[in-house]
Request: fold
Amino acid sequence: MKRLLILTAILTIMVGAANSQVLKPVKWQISYKKVSEGVYDIICKATIESGWHLYDTELPENGPQPTIFTLDEDETDGIELVGKFKATTEPKVEKSEAFNMELKYFEGTVTFVQRVKLKKDTAKLVANVEYMACSGSQCIPPAEEEVNFELKK
Reply:
C-alpha cells in the first residue's frame, strides 16, 4: 500500500511537470557579421510558430512589449550602438481587440539587425533581445534572449 501511494505521488508530480511546460513560440538564432573595420551587424533571426505573432520594435504606449535590443552596461565593454534595432522586412499592421490599438507585428520569420561599432581592438558585447508574442487567445509574458560575443577590429 505504501509503495502504491509513493508511485501515485511520483506519477502525479511527473504529469504535473509535463503539463506545466513553458510556452516558447519564438525561437532565436543570433549571430554577427563584420561589415567593415570595427563595425558589425548583430543579426537576430526569429522563427515564430504558426498561429503566433511577434511584435515590432516600435509600438504605442500602454500596449504589449515591443521587441527591443538592450546592451548590458555592466558587462559590455568597448561597444557603441549605431542606429536603431530594426527589422529587415515591413511588419503587418492590425487593430488588436485585446489592446484596443493598431499594432505592428510579424509572423513566420523575421530578422532584426543592430549595428555596433568597436571603440577598441577587442570588445565584449553582452545584450538582451526582449520580446513578447501572442496568439489569437493568449500572450506569453515578456521574455528575453541573451546575446554574448567577443568582437575584434
User: Anything to note?
Assistant: Residues 4-20 have pLDDT under 50 and may be disordered. The two ends are 69 Å apart (CA to CA). The chain has one domain: 25-152. The helical segments are 2-19.
